[in-house]
Specification:
heterodimer; A: mainly alpha; MetI-like fold; 2 domains; about 70% helix; B: D-Maltodextrin-Binding Protein, domain 2; six-stranded mixed beta sheet; three-stranded antiparallel beta sheet; 17 helices; globular
């Protein structure tokens, strides 16, 4: 590089609002075409009977009334809540624990970090198929490993009580992204705080509880929020591995939306479900943010 | 890093601009003007896009048929487009106004596409060179029509039958002939099933959940019907259907719900492969479609097997007349396709007896046509095809219920099957299915009436 730094000596010339709109135009076009308009249309379809193949017929709130009395809708709500609660809680704790472990001075932590992050690069379909084979009750790796320690493994994907835990367990395979966020946050904790705690005689566990976790609480909030949103939208793994079975034990909300929209040709009903999900997600996110005010600590810049 | 010319804030230099334009022009020049498959079409042919769900050997045989059509005339060129999950994609494409020229669907889609006006009724086209009702098996014709009008052409059909491993039957000291009654089937299942010391099923004699593809079909064994065509009502809680699921429920009781479930789950991803439960000899008897013979030929040609119509409950009238539910793959001409006459010309070609026989032989199925050519069975590679042909032709066989809510109805019946499997009250489960399925049918009819009142498709 040579010469003086660009644009530093000369005051920046304001390009005016028209240039700003010009730069925003590609995003705005995408937002309007692929989000705003389809969103508005689906809001309308939620109050219609619409099969994609026929013009929609206005039926008022009938879709919502039907949802209220549809046992499969409630089953999907319960299953999704179960999946989200378990996978968010377990995933967050495990990712934080692994990050803390890898930020301590253990040998081979670089390799371990890479190995833990790798699964996030595996396409979902490939991962789901691989896990289906691993969960095979007779020849699967999971049950063979359990057999080595004398435990008779269950029929993971074929038994109603085990299918959802199997999916949650598989989800934990993908903690790599959260772990990286926690690792970055942990490195950002001022050393002086640890030193001060050490001088005060705080144990290692105490330092983790009273120093690390409060300092990384914004990262925890971020990861929890993202996990909630993603887990409420879980679709690929149950669709590929169990198709919602057995006995609807893994019939999650998105699967229900997909089946109604594209298998049963009930786009209006599916739109009503989608809007309820959006509102529920917004509500849960808002509640999480409200709770976080007391639990999340932001350091002054 | 390049220097920014003094006196200007424009970071785009002439070199960058010319380079970008040049790269753009090069990309434009190199960009293919037409899809690769169109390039193979002789000049001057009108190209038809035909969406079909088949892959593998089934798609290869279909392509052979299409090649014959493409060579036989000089006006059209059909391009086969393999589509997975075709039901949903066809719905989106046709609903979105960009349909293929011909679309291969499942027969259960016909009522929906007919009522929605998304397919063109075939009686709108000139009848010449098309066999019409007289050409098809009666049950196949039922699947192609809705409310008296034909909406689709056939593209092979199938029913289910019972395959038995004769070596296993011999080994167990049983007759080599497949069981004819439910009692015989149960006895053979007991004799053939082997479990290991831990109670796991090592070899299944017979399990109704293997594979769990047609959970709605067991009523057939007891003469149960799922739908009354005369009244347009669901009949899920027909006493025969209740008896059928009560019989299904005896299997988890006899062989252990967990053991039977684990055994079936083990093969959930290996059907039709060398590890298929029947092909690999892990299941002695299985209810499957005619195509299984094709996979046996490919993966275990030495397997000593036989097939028969599904066994029937004791005491049914005409016990020697086979029963089954006939299903079919169908071809429709989507409404708003580019050239319906051209699509019709291809669809009509596909309805020729020799074309359907060629496909049936390649797929190891029976012919969907009323008359078969003299050499059809002799040249057929499936040695049990006669069984499936007899079931498809049987006056006691039926076609799938002609209602647009069949996918939901079938899923509800699948739920009842699972309820029976876990030991729930079968009659209550089927009564629940009945009430929910009938509500779906009634609501669908009411909405259709509202659409018609607004000037839509009646």
């Amino acid at each position: 590089m040579n010469g003086r730094p660009r644009n530093l000596a000369r005051p920046a010339r304001s390009a005016g609002p028209s240039a700003a709109w010009l730069y925003l135009a590609p995003w705005l076009a995408g937002f309007v075409l692929f989000l705003l308009v389809p969103g508005a249309m689906s809001a309308y379809y939620a109050f219609t009977d619409y099969s994609l193949l026929e013009p929609p017929v206005w039926i008022g709130a009938a879709n919502f009334a039907e949802l209220w009395r549809d046992p499969l809708f409630w089953k999907a709500v319960r299953n999704t809540a179960y999946y989200a609660a378990a996978s968010v809680a377990l995933g967050s704790v495990l990712a934080l624990a692994v990050a803390v472990l890898l930020e301590s001075h253990v040998r081979g932590r670089g390799v371990a970090r890479a190995v833990i992050f790798l699964p996030t690069l595996v396409p979902l379909v490939a991962a789901a198929l691989a896990w289906s084979l691993m969960y095979n009750p007779e020849a699967g790796l999971v049950n063979r490993a359990l057999a080595l320690v004398g435990v008779r493994g269950p029929n993971w994907l074929g038994e109603a009580r085990w299918a959802m835990p199997a999916l949650i367990l598989m989800g934990l395979w993908n903690i790599g992204t959260a772990m990286v966020v926690y690792s970055a946050a942990l490195r950002d904790v001022p050393r002086a705080l640890y030193e001060a705690a050490e001088i005060d005689g705080v144990s290692r566990l105490g330092r983790l509880w009273h120093v690390s976790i409060p300092c990384v609480s914004p990262a925890i909030l971020f990861n929890v929020m993202i996990s909630i949103i993603w887990s409420l939208q879980v679709f690929g793994a149950p669709q590929i591995m169990t198709e919602g079975g057995p006995d609807h034990a893994t019939y999650v909300y998105q699967l229900s939306i997909y089946e109604n929209a594209f298998r049963y040709g009930r786009m209006g009903y599916a739109s009503a479900m989608a809007w309820l999900q959006l509102l529920a997600t917004l509500g849960i996110a808002g509640l999480t943010l409200a709770l976080s005010r007391r639990l999340v600590h932001y350091r002054a810049a | 890093m390049g220097r920014v010319p003094a006196g200007t804030s424009n970071p785009v230099t002439r070199r960058v601009a010319i380079g970008t334009l040049g790269a753009g022009a090069l990309a434009w020049a190199a960009w293919p003007r037409q899809p690769r498959e169109h390039a193979r079409a002789p000049r001057g042919r009108k190209i038809l896009h035909y969406w079909e769900k088949w892959t593998g050997v089934e798609a290869v045989s279909l392509q052979r048929v299409i090649d014959v059509f493409n060579q036989a005339q000089n006006r059209l060129w059909v391009v086969l487009v393999p589509i997975s999950d075709i039901s949903s994609k066809a719905m989106v494409a046709i609903g979105g106004g960009d349909p293929p020229d011909v679309c291969g669907l499942f027969s259960y889609s016909v009522p929906l596409y007919a009522e929605a006006g998304a397919a063109m009724p075939l009686d709108e086209f000139p009848r010449e060179d098309w066999c019409g009702e007289e050409g098809y098996l009666p049950n196949v014709w039922k699947l192609l029509t809705h409310e008296g009008r034909p909406w689709a052409g056939v593209n092979t059909c199938y029913t289910l039958g019972l395959y038995v491993n004769r070596a296993h039957l011999r080994e167990a000291g049983l007759s080599e002939s497949p069981p004819r009654t439910i009692g015989e089937l149960d006895a053979a299942a007991d004799a053939l099933t082997r479990t290991d010391a831990r109670g796991r099923i090592d070899r299944a004699g017979f399990l109704p959940n293997l594979p769990l593809w047609w959970p709605y079909s067991w009523g057939v064994l007891f003469d149960g019907r799922l739908y009354d065509r005369a009244t347009g009502r669901a009949t899920a809680d027909d006493p025969c259907n209740i008896r059928a699921l009560e019989w299904v429920a005896t299997y988890p009781k006899r062989f252990g719900r967990e053991a039977a479930g684990a055994f079936a789950q083990t093969f959930s991803r290996s059907t039709h492969s060398p590890q298929d439960p029947f092909i690999s000899g892990r299941a002695s008897m299985i209810v499957q479609g005619p195509w299984l013979a094709n996979f046996i030929r490919a993966h275990n040609p030495g397997l000593d097997y036989a097939a028969a119509p599904v066994p029937l409950a004791d005491g049914l009238p005409e016990p020697d007349v086979p029963r089954g539910l006939v299903e079919a793959d169908v071809l429709i001409i989507p409404r708003n396709c580019r050239d319906p006459e051209a699509s019709w010309e291809f669809l009509r070609f596909m309805q020729r007896r020799e074309v359907q026989e060629q496909l049936a032989q390649a797929h190891c199925k029976s012919s969907p046509m009323r008359d078969v050519s003299p050499g059809f069975f002799a040249a057929h590679p499936g040695r049990v095809v006669g069984v499936f042909d007899a079931v498809a032709r049987s006056p006691r066989s039926d076609a799938l219920p002609p209602t647009r809510v069949w996918p939901q109805y079938a899923d509800l019946l699948g739920g009842a099957f699972e309820a029976a499997w876990r030991g729930a009250d079968v009659a209550a489960a089927l009564r629940d299915v009945q009430s929910r399925a009938q509500r779906l049918i009634d609501e669908s009819a009411a909405l259709r009436a509202r659409r018609a009142a607004r000037g839509g498709v009646p």
